[in-house]
Design a protein that fits this description.
Length: 57
């Protein structure tokens, strides 16, 4: 993400349509593709969730 760091994350809840802008400084050490996505999944997906499901509740 060369020159792509803005310090913000736009989060869109596709179920509710809610849109929020979050400070991304807590993710700065994880930026770089997969590490960033893994950190979000680690924090937000409950243990034991079957990731092959079409929809994660």
């Amino acid at each position: 993400m060369a020159n792509g760091w803005t310090g913000n994350i736009l989060r869109v809840n596709l179920t509710t349509g809610n849109i929020t802008l979050e400070d991304s400084s807590k993710f700065k050490s994880f930026v770089g593709g997969m590490g960033f996505g893994y950190k979000i999944m680690y924090d937000e997906v409950p243990p034991g969730t079957n990731l092959s499901m079409k929809r994660i509740n």
